[in-house]
């Protein structure tokens, strides 16, 4: 790991320049990695988004995670939550962020992932692990454990009766 990589780990905050949606002037935003208290507070509002991201992980043993289009769809399905989380990370109002141009919004989202990807990844891993554990601990995971068929008839007309 080089010095630049080590600095990135120690200081994951990202700067991104966007155009003010009202004036068009360039504005430099600092997207901060959530500090401990911010992360605790953000966890509650992030739950539905984290659950959607966890659902994209079909097999935790696969080397590849979900593709960018699937992640983008999850973000779009939870757009208000995503805006709230980004606003918390950069200290801007979510309504102001919502008015950014598409390219600026995407650049800001990329900076958010760079600064706070670990926040989401840690929570997704916990959910996927819990789901995997619940599946493994299920007393009935195969068709061999399905509901048994009914008891055979034992009437006089059957070969299983006492008088047959």
Question: What is this structure, in a nutshell?
Answer:
By secondary structure, this protein is mainly α. It has six helices and two strands; from the N terminus they run H-E-E-H-H-H-H-H. Strand 1 (14-19) and strand 2 (26-31) form a beta hairpin.
Describe it for me?
- The protein has helices at residues 3-10, 36-55, 68-77, 79-90, 94-98, 102-137; strands spanning 14-19, 26-31.
- It is mainly α and 164 residues long.
- It has one domain.
- β1 and β2 form a beta hairpin.
- α2 (36-55) runs antiparallel to α4 (79-90) and α2 packs across α6 (102-137).
- The radius of gyration is 26 Å and the shape is elongated.
Itemize the secondary structure elements and their pairings.
Layout: H1 3-10, E1 14-19, E2 26-31, H2 36-55, H3 68-77, H4 79-90, H5 94-98, H6 102-137
Antiparallel strand pairs: 1-2
Helix pairs in contact: 2-4, 2-6
Helicity, as a percent range = 55-70%
Got a strand count? 2
Strand adjacency order, main sheet: 1-2
The whole-number mean of residue pLDDT values reads 85
Number of domains: 1
| Shape label | elongated
Q: Which H/E pattern describes the elements? A: HEEHHHHH
Number of helices, where a helix is a run of at least 4 consecutive DSSP H or I residues: 6
Strand content: 5-15%
Largest sheet entry = 2 strands, antiparallel
Structural class by sheet pairing and helices: mainly alpha
Low-confidence region ranges: none
């Amino acid at each position: 790991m080089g010095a630049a990589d080590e600095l990135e780990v120690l200081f994951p905050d990202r700067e991104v320049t966007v155009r003010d949606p009202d004036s068009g002037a360039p504005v430099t935003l600092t997207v901060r990695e959530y500090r401990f208290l911010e992360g605790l507070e953000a966890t509650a509002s992030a739950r539905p988004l984290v659950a959607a991201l966890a659902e994209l992980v079909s097999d935790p043993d696969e080397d590849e995670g979900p593709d960018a289009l699937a992640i983008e769809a999850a973000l779009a399905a939870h757009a208000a939550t995503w805006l709230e989380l980004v606003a918390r990370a950069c200290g801007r109002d979510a309504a102001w962020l919502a008015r950014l141009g598409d390219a600026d919004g995407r650049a800001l989202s990329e900076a958010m992932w760079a600064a706070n990807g670990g926040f989401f990844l840690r929570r997704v891993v916990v959910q996927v692990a819990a789901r995997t554990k619940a599946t493994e601990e299920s007393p009935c995971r195969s068709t061999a454990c399905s509901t048994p068929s009914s008891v055979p008839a034992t009437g006089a007309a059957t070969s299983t009766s006492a008088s047959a």
